[in-house]
Amino acid sequence: MESKNLEVSKQDGKLVVTFNRPNKLNAWSEQLVDELTTLLEEASFDNEIKVIVLTGKGKAFSAGGDLDEFLASTPQQVEKYNRKVIDLFRLMEKMRKPIIAAVNGYCNLETIQAVDYVLASTTAKFGLPEINVAISPGAGILVRLPRLVGHLKTKEIALFGEWIDAETAVKMGLVNRVVSPEELMRVADELATKLASKAPLTLGAIKAVINNSQGMGKDEAMEYQLKENSSLFNTEDLREGIKAFLEKRKPVYKGK
Question: N- or C-end of the chain: fewer Cβ atoms within 10 A?
Fold first, then answer.
């Protein structure tokens, strides 16, 4: 897929997507959202892709929405944009493939709300700066974030609009791991390689249960987990995984 706003590479089961608007702090224009949506839709059905890595070129992962576009848009156009972003995040959550965010600089929390692992550079900054230009954070972040860090902490982040350093973000549960800027993409590749070596159907089942069970009652969620778990026993990969363990060799998974 050709893209004006994304750099894309695919190798050894890993799809690396780099936001390529460094002069705009990789702000998400409507065109970028459309391109990323199309790319991830295609990746969902590409059996060669096992894991996806998102990162940004320059000094930002992404500062959020494109303010120039917002200023030139009607309220109806902004609502249309936000609906597209919400649909993109739903797609990311429903994809049965893990998504890693390799955060290299300024990162609006909206842009990582639907990823599965957050790796941050020591220079990364996280926040919801919209209040500083009289915008309310959108695209679902005010719904998802309280479930992650609690209501009071979400209000603090959104009401003050201040940036949070990477180490603080780890303590808050916003980030999994922090590494030096020089190590960021190397470690991201190592993590992606590890995930790409796992059984893809099992990775998908684990992600699906964690994401999809959040809105369910306890008993319904337990039944859903049981269904996902049981379905794996019909797969060749599960049998291969058990045999490889017993035979003390590396498994060869086929996604079947």
Answer: N
CA 249 to chain centre: 32
Q: 16 with 49: CB under 8 angstroms? A: no
Owner of token pair 């991201």: 188
- Active-site positions read 110, 130
* Element (DSSP H or E) covering residue 20: none
Q: Give the chain's length.
A: 256
- Measured CA angle at 170 (ends 167, 174), to 5 deg: 130
- Nearest alpha carbon to residue 4 among 23, 31, 43: 31
Bridge partner list, 255: none
CB contact set of 35 (below 8 Å; sequence gap of 6+) = 1, 3, 4, 5, 6
For 158-211, the DSSP string reads HHH---EEHHHHHHHTS-SEEE-TTTHHHHHHHHHHHHHTS-HHHHHHHHHHHH
What is the rounded CA–CA span in Å between residue 192 and residue 171?
23
Nearest C-alpha neighbor of 110 from the set 92, 91, 85:
85
pLDDT, averaged per 10 consecutive residues of the chain (256 residues), comes to 86 96 95 96 95 96 93 92 95 96 96 97 96 91 93 96 96 96 97 96 94 89 92 92 93 91
pTM listed for this prediction: 0.92
H-state helical runs in the chain: 30-44, 67-71, 75-94, 141-149, 151-160, 166-172, 184-196, 200-212, 218-231, 236-246
* Look-up of token digits 């790319």: 39
